[in-house]
Amino acid sequence: MRLTEVLFKKVKSKRIMVLMESVVSGHQFNTFRDRLADKIELIKFDPYIQKESLYRERKRIRSA
Fold it and tell me: What's the first-to-final CA gap in the chain, in angstroms?
């Protein structure tokens, strides 16, 4: 491997953007998490049902 190939390797970001989806209503929003962290589950206000609900990470969107 040449020195120039080593210097121009693409660097991966430490954080990624993920899509969060409500288990109850299907409401979605984007958030960031660390690349090496586990998948996110959190409780947040859901505007469709006007109550707090559980959100789960559905898919990875892109590197940030």
Answer: 28
Domains annotated for the chain, with CATH where assigned, are 12-63 (2.20.28.120)
Q: For residue range 1-60, list pLDDT tens digits in order.
A: 566 666 677 778 899 999 999 999 999 999 999 999 999 999 999 999 999 999 999 999
Angle at 47 between CA 22 and CA 21, to 5 degrees: 15
| Residue from 31, 29, 21 nearest 53 by CA | 21
For the chain, give the longest Cα–Cα distance: 58
